[in-house]
User: Fold this.
Amino acid sequence: MIAVGIDPSLVCTGLAILGGERPVTRRIATASTGTDLASKRARLRKAVAGILAPIPARVDVTVIEVPHSRQQFGAQNERIALYWFLVDQLMARGPVVEVAPAARAKLATGSGRATKDEVIAAMQAMHPTALIQDDNVADALALATAGANWAGAAHPYTPDQMVAHARLAWPITRLTA
Assistant:
């Protein structure tokens, strides 16, 4: 079983892969200079390549956070482009499930209003051997955990976390090796 969680960002993407002895986590930073189209394109291509590089060619499920729809500041078009470029490439590797930011927090802690520190603490408690560098990685680990649960790996979810898990649009069937 391989479950991937991604918290995509133009600045620092969190990535988590569950399926081995220990969770694999990555904090993928993306630097950019210039605001012209060529610079934006280069930044997006570099981000996509860096995020996809550690992900196996075939996975059971990838769970990805959707960009916040009401974000008014920053490069919203670029964030949305990054999301769709990733989804396109990830769907070739296995099913992809999208998660809204509040649902991600509820999956992690049982509360849709959980703080970044609460998500980090919850993921550290659930995965004590995981290297959680920041809140982006903790978010990705929460998403990968949800995917692993769907794929059959048991994790100690609370009833509120199970409600959040059940509300996601999971694929109808699981992949078999």
